[in-house]
Predict the structure.
Amino acid sequence: MTMSATRTQVPVRVDEEKCIAHKGCTVCVDVCPLDVLAIDLAKGKAFMKFDECWYCLPCEKDCPTDAIRVDIPYLLR
Amino acid sequence: MNTIQLETDVLVIGGGTGGPMAAVKAKQRNPQLRVMLLEKANVKRSGAISMGMDGLNNAVIPGHATPEQYTKEITIANDGIVLQKAVLAYAENSFDMINELDRWGVKFEKDETGDYAVRKVHHLGTYVLPMPEGHHMKKILYRQLKKCRVDVTNRVVATRLLTDAEGKIAGALGFDCRSGDFVVIRAKAAILCTGAAGRLGLPSSGYLFGTYENPTNAGEGHAMAYHAGAELTGLDCFQINPLIKDYNGPACAYVTGPFGGYTANAHGERFIECDYWSGQMMLEFYNELESGKGPVFLKLDHLAEETIRNIEHILHTNERPSRGRFHESRGTNYREKMIEMHISEIGFCSGHSASGIWINERAETTVPGLYAAGDCGSIPHSYMLGAFVYGRFAGENAAQYCADTGVAAVDGEQIAREQARVSAPLARAEGLSPWQVEYKVRRMVNDYLQPPKVTRKMELGLERFDEIREDLDRMSAANPHELMRAMEVHAIRDCAEMAARASLYRTESRWGLYHYRVDYPEKDDENWFCHAQLKRGAGGAMECLRRPVEPYVIELDEEEKTAYQRLRVAKEAAAA
């Protein structure tokens, strides 16, 4: 397929030290209205897979270990 | 693509605000009914109030307001084009709903006597009830869903409604945005609670997901209703809101107004008497923004420290909790200077304006067995409380409808056609990416439909939307998530065409900026004191028609009729 790989700085940052996805936690993935988060199965950590963030914060507020920080997307800052 | 077959009695599509209420009320009306709540995200955090809400904007509370007075206010704010009995039905049931929410544990602001602490924001009456702890709203709704044993299905995107040979509702079709499975749901009745068409215009930042509305609400309900043959209304009456520039938070009249904050021009002067959101208010806002005294600002810097702290607590912890960090990154502070404002992208949303799927005072659409509530319905200026009240009407009436209705036979051809449409992007290895097509259609919406509206521009927009229709069949999706975006683009394009056709149909100007046509600048009551409806015509093309405004149940006096036309501050205000 003809496609490009354009790099983008995404607004959702996951602190991998704190993230407990490897223990089976999927809270941030579950609550995201836009379904943009996923678990990296190799690493066992959550990450932002799609650059489609509404910066609404359920992922950050509902994370049980405070592992997530949402920035305002660069285009709006 | 596997196919999953499901069956229920009442199918509620959309689990944000009106949807959970509809599901709970259907179940309470008849606990024997099977009630399924279908949500494209997760009901725990979905819809316009995913993070909560800071207040009720339209509480009709005895001692502060009457249903008759509220009905008058909304009639005037909507330039007379309302189904008054439906607004009145909301107003008469608003207080019961507030008390029920209070019993469920929603914390409303109360005074020292325990009475609701209502504030005045509207032009005429007093209806705003703050909920400083409103961030718990979704948790409270979720508890009720569990208590009533509603069957919740998350991450399934509905794409089309199923109808039987007589045109009645027979269910819905969609897909799972995680697995990609095709989903066929047979149902006796369906309730659309899909929210606003919030991804129609492009925010001026160009960021697709920087919309005022939760971008999950892409107008699929409007598109589904249209394709099922339902009438839509007021699609010429766009939603346009005054927001903080570059941030999607309201400015916000409802919160800061009662504390002494207001909308000002570059000189710090107040230029509108009432900050309540209406088309007339937005026109004054637009005029000031484009004038030599522009741009427009939110002015709070004259308020006391304690007041500002209070405002920050409400605005930065409820509906839009990322707002504080936006101001932080910009280095803007309410205490130090005014905050620059701008106008939002266009959308369809009856919560704030009047556009949506036509419903009557029983939440019935024009399709038998199909109901709608909340921002996708058509009760003007109805906000969150309107979604709850009409969610209740829809749930109760759909439950009653099910008593005399069987599950209809499904039409294999409708299913096959939809399965082909939904599976196509995944099957295409090469093609346009959904975001490219979405960006293009929404950029064209801004170029050709953003008011002031111009006839020739809207006609050109229609030509572009027609061309983009062909691009829909060239999109490819690498996974079910991208498929969700691709199918949303179908709905966005449908809504764009509806917005253009409805706006071209009404050859006058009305609702201030919402339908300001430069080449028809005057209001024309003789020809256009009517609802403009849009539906799928016999030939499959969009068709517009007039629906007369039903005789008012509450008469207005002449002075009241023009109240919202006199919003501009009469003489030059002294700088504050």
Observations:
- The longest strand of chain B covers residues 156-163.
- The CA atoms of residues 220 and 491 of chain B lie 5 Å apart.
- Chain B has a mean pLDDT of 95.
- Residues 242-343 of chain B form a domain with the Flavocytochrome C3; Chain A, domain 1 fold (CATH 3.90.700.10).
